[in-house]
Structures are given as structure tokens and as C-alpha cells.
Design goal:
This is Phenylacetate-CoA oxygenase subunit PaaJ. It holds the Pfam family Zn_ribbon_PaaD. It comes from Aquibium oceanicum. With about 170 residues, the chain is an alpha/beta fold. The chain folds into two domains: about 80 residues, Fe-S cluster assembly (FSCA) (GMP Synthetase, Chain A, domain 3), CATH 3.30.300.130; about 70 residues, no CATH class. A four-stranded mixed sheet has the order 4-7-6-5. A hairpin with a 5-residue loop joins strand 6 and strand 7. Helix 1 packs across helix 3.
């Protein structure tokens, strides 16, 4: 059994490997940026990553789990991924860095109010990720993926996706 400091170093290395996996649907952010990588522990020499799906019907869940497992194996670990469904993921778990990466990529990040009645029923003010204007309109409840809505900025006239609050 490795010493405590050695185990912490292994755990940190394993976390970095798993955390570097990009989201397959939104590759500008990693699973860590999205907050879906819950933890990585070393147990009996096995790196165990715990991942929470963004929502139960997300088609990328298996791809993400396989990519995290592959990243851990590529980093030299025997690996296993466990799906954790409770508590359910919320867009509030997206890191500040992840929100900035979304904005830089041209996707308006979700408001940090997933428990707000206003955000749950689509009554949010969505700022354009390109020019910052709040003068925007929703074109479609669904954008390029089910977790995004499609908007247009009325100031710069550019279309963009908004990562919906969950």
C-alpha cells in the first residue's frame, strides 16, 4: 500500500488525467469544467472516477465515461468509472473557467440560478457571447444539442446557442 503522500500524488495525477477529457458535444470545455467529474480516488491501486451525467437522456454519457477511463489508462492507471446520479447535476456546477470557455467559444453560459423559478421556465435575460448585448431573442428551445437553446442577438445580429439551466 502506498504511503499517504504517495497516494495523494497518485490521486492528483489521476484527477488531472480524467479532468482533461473534453466534452464530446462541447469540446471547448472539459468534464471538470462542466462539474460532471465528481471525484477520482485511488482504491487498491485502481483509479475510480465518479461522473454525473448532465441529464438522464444525454447521448454523450457513455462516450464521456469511456473517454475518462481511456484517459486514466493512458496515464498508467488501472481504471474504473462509476456513474453517480444523486445528487443530480446542475448547471450551477459549471466552473467560472468553464463559463468563460463557453462564452469564448460563442455559447452563452447558463445563468447561475438553476433553482430560480425564472430560469426554470425560460424567463432569463441571455447576453450575447459575442458583443455582450442583452437585446437578444430566443429562436428555438433547442439548439445544436438538447441542452442548448438557439438565440439571436438583435444588436450584432449574430445567432448563438445558450446553454440552458438545469
Amino acid at each position: 500500500m502506498p504511503a499517504s503522500g504517495e497516494n495523494e500524488e497518485l490521486q492528483h495525477r489521476a484527477w488531472l488525467a480524467a479532468a482533461s477529457v473534453p466534452d464530446p458535444e462541447v469540446p471547448c470545455v472539459t468534464v471538470a469544467d462542466l462539474g460532471i467529474l465528481r471525484s477520482v480516488e485511488i482504491v487498491d491501486g485502481i483509479a475510480i472516477a465518479k461522473v454525473t451525467p448532465t441529464y438522464s437522456g444525454c447521448p454523450a454519457v457513455l462516450a464521456i465515461e469511456l473517454a475518462v477511463e481511456a484517459a486514466l489508462r493512458d496515464a498508467g492507471f488501472e481504471a474504473r468509472v462509476e456513474r453517480v446520479v444523486s445528487p443530480a447535476w446542475t448547471t450551477d456546477w459549471i466552473t467560472p473557467e468553464g463559463r468563460e470557455k463557453l462564452r469564448d467559444y460563442g455559447i452563452a453560459p447558463p445563468q447561475k440560478t438553476s433553482t430560480s423559478i425564472r430560469s426554470l421556465f425560460g424567463e432569463v435575460e441571455v447576453a450575447c457571447p459575442r458583443c455582450g448585448s442583452a437585446d437578444t431573442e430566443k429562436l428555438s428551445e433547442f439548439g445544436s444539442t438538447a441542452c442548448k437553446a438557439h438565440y439571436r442577438c438583435l444588436a450584432c445580429r449574430e445567432p448563438f446557442d445558450y446553454f440552458k439551466c438545469i
